[in-house]
Structure formats: structure tokens, C-alpha cells
């Protein structure tokens, strides 16, 4: 620690003293300006933006509670810190107290700021600072927390040290603080100490200790901020606690707590809580009275003790001075007697004459002051006195030359006393008994100390009348006499702090006895204002409050009764108004949405109201629209339609029907007629008589014209369809005749080729070589394939042409039957077959059998080269209609060629791999199309294929 302080002191020693004095004076005035801004409740960030603004502090319970909490924390930490000396004689662990001030100002805000100066002063008294120092340091006690106010401004409303932004603001605050605070106190202490000592000892010590504070503050803040927020003590989170506005503006830019997020209503919500709590009105005078009494008692007691100590010190110094006089007389007498004996011997051996003996006697008498042995005798005499253990005792002549002293040579205290003694001697110690009391101050830099000494100077004259120019001086440190007084100051300050705590506790108890019932009444009143009328209040032991509670309960009960009645009536009116608004809204929306002419006919007055669509549809200007029903409606109906329309309307009005509608022609402004569709609703009174009629008129001219065109088009279309149907029937008949004739004409030659080929192979095989026999087999196979193609083409033709007969078909049964036939035809095949039973569909039985046989035959064929083959038939009902699935794990196909899958004669495998004509899937696709369904396929080479179809 000392090494660090020495290094800092060396740095300040390198700065010229005049520059340090300018720095200190500038820091003082900057601090003074900060004090005005801080205690004037100015802010540099109104509403979160940089600028000049003002804060308004609400003195609520949180604000008043922050004051004693800050006070107690500073007192406790100051007392604990005084036990740890960081800089001997100069500084204790002030960091602990400064750390608490930082936390309180940042977390509690303005209430902590106004508390710090008084808590600082009381803490210094407890630590033993002389009371007179407090007056000299009074500006510093107010400027010091103003420097901490900078942290309040820079760290803002969220001093969370987990954010980099907070660290940047904090470092800026530390730099400003270190530039002002240590130099400021150097300036303030320069009157008690010399400027050199103040700026080169006090300022470096403060620079060191506050540096410790700023190392600890972020770590402590990481725990203090969450705790304060959890307990509801952080000033920025308390509703309505602080408000900010820019200078010159009347509107508040920001308000603390949740109310600040509530918009304009926030001020209303907090307005009722901006006054001073009643418990504080009761508590504050009580605390002030107790503290004044304690302070007055301590002041009077300590003042009396100080006067008694001064009187005691004066009396003691006089007694010591008289004692020294007696001892000096005795010492001088012994020295004089020794000198006389020496003179008598000289006289016997010397020449005669009284003048000689007198001269020798004078020399012997004066030798004690002039000779070294005499001075040593007086020094030994003074050193043996009890006063030498605590203070100083010395003898000087009127030329301020030391005759003898209890202190070593060149003692600074003796030197300081002699310099003050010059003023005392000029005021006169010439007379008898001649004495004077005076004080002087000794200041030292290492260790830093400022000690006051109480001194007593008395003129000395021995019995023989010699040595009249001697002055006997005794000096003792004032702390020796006033140690009890200083201890009393400290204890009085501790009692003062304890009295504050006890006063708070007692006042809080007393205030709660009165404030608690009033608070209950206040809360109930707020709830009453919010609409909660059932707020029964309990009685109180205080008669007036008990009477108020009963009156409140009676008022609340009466309000509840009136409110219930009023609520019922208001609710009924609200329902009626809501119904009316809803009806009007629907009416307006319907009128805008339909584009129709809306009308309202009042039977009693014969007038009618038309909406703006009347002008838009029929081209009339506003002045051409008469409110008379006859002029604006009857007269504009086409003469050929008017009689029919009015007769139908009169029938409805005369009867009990409520709805009327009709179609007629209505006159436009240009003289043409529009085809309209009109309908209305009759409103009747309780007797069934019509009173009003509301309706809508729609222009259907274009629809009528479209209907006429559509009828003509339909007639023409029916003729074209009939003609095309006849042509298609003829074409189908010709195609069927052609197919059968081609089939017959092709089959005869094919049968001939096949027959002759078989006879040739049977009867003349021995005459043919192997090549010729292979040719015959190929010819025979080709004829059989041609017959299969003809049969498949005929089948495809019948599938597309034959009429359908719909019924429920059991597809599962067809699958079982088809696969059983395939298994019987190929008993050597081992195929795992899975068929879901109960699957059926609506369709033609013959066509659906062909569909299933083709799909299952394909699956059987394409799994012929697969080991562990399987075939499955199942259904998926996840869609809106069943989807049937035929899947296998056979040869599959490449999906790139899937578009050719359902075309006639399209094959995806060579004939040498799998036989077939390529007609089967084309047949399947036409059957599904005739049933209005869909079919799709997914496959992968050598991993099988899946066909999904719906009907």
C-alpha cells in the first residue's frame, strides 16, 4: 500500500505547486457548479436524450425510507472503515463509505443525495474529526455527493454492469470524479494544513483510496442492482417516483416505473400518489424533535466539558510553573552556595578587598546561566519533571535563547512555541507574577498531522533578584486535555445516530397506529373509485377513525344499491343502442355491398326515401327526385307493367303477407327503360296495419339480355350437339363394322398361315434343317402374337364403346380369383400375396374385372424374375374417396418414361424380357376414365412398381 501511495505522491510532487493550487481551485468551483445542478434536480438526459432538463422527485414512502437507509449504511461503513488504516496518519478505508455513497445515489437517487452530507459529517464526528473541521469542510460535504451524481446521470436508468455500454459510462464517470474530488479536498484542507502538504499528501491519499472504490464498485453493483430491483427499491422501477422533462417544456418526457409505459394515463394513475405520506408527516416532526434534543444536550454537555478542561489546563500549567520556579530557586541556591565557598578560599589566598569577593560571587551566581554545567543542570531538572513525559518544559531568556529544556536540541515543538512566545513577550511578562496562556499549531507531513498545543509562559526571578530576564514555558498537547472531549464528540455522534434509528422505529410504530387505518380507508376509496363498491372496512381503536370507517361502509352500501339500479337501466339501454347500431351498420353495409337502390316508404305521409344509387342507376339529378311515392316511382313504371305491379302491391298491403317482389320496366332519365327486380318488406303495427315498407330495387337489364342471348345460344348448341351426336354414332358404327371386318379379314389369313406352318413343321420337319425349323417357329409365334394384338384391339374398342351398368363390385374377390388362376397356371412360382378383404367400388362389373386382371397380370409377369416376390392389393382412405393400390417388388421401370406408360402399344421392356402387346395399361386407363377416376404410377428399376387408382 505504502509503495503505491509513495508512487502517487511522487507523481504529484513532480507537478509544480502553483499548478496544483490552480487545479484545486478549479476543481472546487466545478464541484460547486455540480452541487447546484445536482441539488437543483437538473438532469442531463431528460427522457433518455442528451440535453438540459429538470427532475421532479415524488416524496413518497420509498423516498422517505431511502433517507434513513442511506444514513445508517454510511454511518456503519464509515465506522468500520475507520479501523483500517491505508495511509498512516492520512487516510483510513474511506473506500467503504464512498462505495456505499455510490450505491445509494445510483440506486436510490435524489433522497440519498440530500442525505449524504449530513451522514458524512456525523460519520466523521464518530471517527474523531474535530467539530471545528466540519465547518471548514462543509462545502466539501455537499460537493462530494454532487460528484457521485455524475454516476447517476451517466449510468442512466439501467446501471447493469453486464452491458458494455454501462462500463463505458462508468469509466467516463471515474475519470471525471478523479479529476475533481481529490484536488477539491486538497483545496479545502489547505487552510488546516499548508498547500504543499494538502496537495502532495492529502490529494494523493484520496486519489489512492477512491481508486480502490472504483475497482470494487462494479463487482458490488452486480449484486446490489438485482437485489434493489427485487425488493422494489431501485428508483427507476418505482411507479411515479421520478419524472423528467426538458428545460422549457411543460410536458413530462419520462416517468419512472411501469407508469412510464402506460402512455397518457400514467400521470393520472400516479397523480394521487404524489403527495407526502401521512406517516411521514407524523414521523418527521417527531424525529426532528428527538434529534434536536439529543444534539442540544450533547452540545451543552461537551461545551461545558471543554470550558472545564480549559480551566483545568490553565490551573495545571500555573501549578507546574510555580513548581518549576521553586525547583529553579533551589537549584540556583545550591549553585550560589557552592560559588560562595569557592570565593572564600580564593579570598584567603588572594589579595584583600571586598570588591574582589563580590565579583567572584557574581560570577559564581551567574555561572549557572552562562556555563555548560549550569545549563545541563537545568535541563536535567526539567527532564525529570512529570510534564516532560507528555509535553515540553523549557527556560528561555528574553532574547529567546534556550537556557534549558526537557526536549532534545532542535525540537520542533519548542521551536514553534518560541516563535509564538515572541508575541507573548511583547505584550508583557515584565511584572510580577507575570504569566500568559497561549496556543500554537504544529503541522507535519509525515505522518500527516495537525496538532494544537496549549502553552503557559511565566516570568522568573530568583530570590536573589537575579535572572529577571528568564521565562519559564510549559507546553502540552491539547489532545491530552481534550481527549475526553473528543471521545465525547465521537460518542455523542454515535448516540445521535442511535437516537435517529430509535426515533425512526418509535415514530414508525406510532405513525402506523394512525396511518394504517387511514391507508385502509384510502385503498378502499381508490377501489371505490375504480368501481369496486363492496369494500367493507374494519373498525379502529381510534374513535375518529372508527367513526370514519362506519360512515364509509354506509356510503359504500348506499352507492352499491344505487349502482345496481343504475347498472340495470344502463345495461338495458346499452343493449338497445347496440342493437340499433348493429341494425344501422348492417343496413348501411348491405346498401353499399349490393349496389341496389334502397328505398323507405312511409305510408302515413306518402313520402319515400331513396339512397344515392337511385341517381347512379337511372341517371336522375338530385333535384329531379321527388319525395312523393307517386312522382318518383308510380309515374316512372312502364304503362304496360304499371297496372299489374300496383295490383300485386295492393294485394300484399291489404293482406297479411310481409314480402312483396316483382319485375317490371322503369323509366331512365334518357327516356329508355331499365329491366328491374323490386322487392319490399312491410312493417306493420300491433293491429296488423302497414305503416312502412322498406325495399331494394335492382337493375337486371343486363341479366335479362344475357338470359335472352343464353336461350338463343342453348337452342343453337342443342342443334349442334344433336348433329354431332348423330355423326359420332355413325362414325362409331362404321368403326365397329370396320373393326369386325378387319378382325375377320385378318384372322382368316393368319389362321391359314398358322395352320400350314404347323403342318409343315409336323410333316416335313425331318427334311428341314435347324435354321428352317427356327424360321417356322418364329412365323408361328408371330401369327399367335398377331392374334393377341387383334383380340386386344377388339377388347380396347369394346371397353370404350360398350354401355356401362353400374353396381357394387367386390374388387377383393376379383383379386383373389385372378391371382388364384395365375398361381394355378404357374405352380412353380413362389409369390407372397397380400389382399385386403372387403374392398369394393361402384362401377361396371365386366370393365372392373378387366381392369383388375390387367393390373394383377402385369404384377405377376414383372415379378417372374424376382426372388422372394410379393404382390399386394390394398386401399388408402386418406383422401375424399378410396384410392386402390396394386404394388409389387418386380422389375419396375424408369420414371423418365412414365408418360408413355398408358399409351397403346407402348412398352418399357423388351419382348425378350417380358412378353406382351402394350395394350393392357391403355385398356386400364380407358376403363378408369369411363368411371371418372384417376390413375398414377410410381416405380424404380428392379425395386417394383405401385399403381394407385380411384373410381
Which key terms come to mind for this protein?
single chain, alpha+beta, 25 helices, 5-stranded antiparallel sheet, 23 strands, 951 residues, 60% helix, elongated
First-residue to last-residue Cα separation: 97 Å
Structural class: alpha+beta
Mean pLDDT: 77
Shape summary? elongated
Low-pLDDT residue intervals, each spanning 5 or more residues? 259-273, 345-370, 428-433
> Helicity range of the residues?
55-70%
**DSSP helical segment count:** 25
User: Strand count, sense and closure of the main sheet?
Assistant: 5 strands, antiparallel
Strand content: 5-15%
Counted beta strands: 23
**What is the quaternary state of this protein?**
single chain
Cross-sheet strand order for the largest sheet: 8-7-11-10-9
- Rg from C-alpha positions? 62 Å
What does the model show?
The protein has 951 residues and is of the alpha+beta class. The protein has 25 helices and 23 strands. The protein has a five-stranded antiparallel sheet, sandwiched between helices. Strands 13-12-16-15-14 form a five-stranded antiparallel sheet, sandwiched between helices. The protein has a five-stranded mixed sheet with strand order 18-20-21-23-22, with helices on one face. The longest helix has 72 residues, at 278-349.
